[in-house]
Amino acid sequence: MTQGETAVLGRIGHLETRLAATPSEIAAAQAVRFNVFAKEMGAALPPESMRCGRDMDAFDAVCDHLLVLDHSIVGDPEKQIVGTYRLLRQEVARANDGFYSTSEFAIADLLARHPEKRFMELGRSCVLPQYRTRRTVELLWQGNWAYSLEHGIDAMFGCASMPGVQPEAHALPLSFLYHNCLASGIWSVSARPELYSNMDLMPKEAVDMRGAINSMPPLLKGYLRLGAMIGDGAVIDRAFGTTDVMVVLPIAQINNRYINHYGADASRFAS
Questions:
Q1: Helices in the chain by DSSP H: which ranges?
Q2: Using CA atoms, how far apart are residues 226 and 244, in angstroms rounded to an integer?
Q3: How would you write the pLDDT of the chain (271 residues) with one tens digit per residue?
Q4: Rounded-to-10 torsion of CA 168, 172, 178, 182
Q5: Which residues pair with 84 in a beta bridge?
Q6: How far apart are alpha carbons 94 and 63 in whole angstroms?
Q7: How many angstroms separate the Cα of 269 from the Cα of each of 18, 117, 259?
Q8: Angle, nearest 10°, between helix axes 218-226 and 134-150?
Q9: 17: which strand partners?
Q10: How many CB atoms lie within 10 A of CB 147?
Q11: Contact in structure between 174 and 102 (CB atoms under 8 Å)
Q12: Nearest to 1 by CA among 55, 53, 59
């Protein structure tokens, strides 16, 4: 965790986004993750996480933790956390144990093709059910955007998940992503060969675009609206009970509509 970076990155009404400032705030964010992943989604987390009621792993110690807090909740900041994202910059990953996503996707070649660019991994995104609103999503992206600008990030990437461990149940959205959003050329990336699940489950002419988009989780739809591309191959994450795809979002390819919405300097929702 980068100490001292606790400035408010954005604010809408009584909601605020900033980085976690203390170990206790990180622990509270882990508890929010536990409530969403284990209690709501049924993820089979490690015994220590189940005992403590916190979704945690070794990456938490080196990542920055973006928070959304609701200041209308009475109490300490730890009680106000309603959403979180985990951010891992390339130089931090390189100095420690690499990126989390390497357990599922072969990203080394992608990174090697862009030695001059700075990458950032987004992970562990979650929001408490009653806060899954446009405002909360806007603040999370405000925080990601402001953080990316501050650290000179050139590209973001990370896993996006669909519920369930049967890719065939997601034949429509996976096929849409394969035929319309696949990263290629210098941005191509694939699932690790031993984990690769085919996404090309329907012919392109059989894919109903509107139905495919409507069937996607909000986070994945949000990535696509920003201009993201998708890696080749899905991965089944049995611990979390999800089917994962790799999202790649070069900063230079973010839709201008969203740059204008948040401000080229991330000033739109800044305090």
A1: 23-34, 47-52, 77-80, 90-95, 108-112, 134-150, 171-180, 209-214, 218-226, 256-262
A2: 19
A3: 344 447 899 999 999 999 999 999 999 999 999 999 999 999 999 999 999 999 999 999 999 999 999 999 999 999 999 999 999 999 999 999 999 999 999 999 999 999 999 999 999 999 999 999 888 988 999 999 999 999 999 999 999 999 999 999 999 999 999 999 999 999 999 999 999 999 999 999 999 999 999 999 888 998 998 999 999 999 999 999 999 999 999 999 998 888 888 888 888 777 6
A4: -120
A5: 67, 126
A6: 12
A7: 12, 27, 12
A8: 50
A9: 10, 68
A10: 24
A11: no
A12: 59
Residue of 52, 84, 89, 51 lying closest to 66 (CA atoms):
84
Amino acid at 74: V
pTM of the model as a whole: 0.93
The encoded tokens of residue 112 equal 């090697």
Which two tokens mark 166?
A: 């049967």
Closest CA to 200 of 183, 224, 182, 227: 182
Q: Which two tokens stand for residue 64?
A: 């920055």
**Which tokens go with 26?**
């990180």
CA distances to 152, 186, 239, 266 from 258, rounded to whole Å, are 18, 24, 34, 11
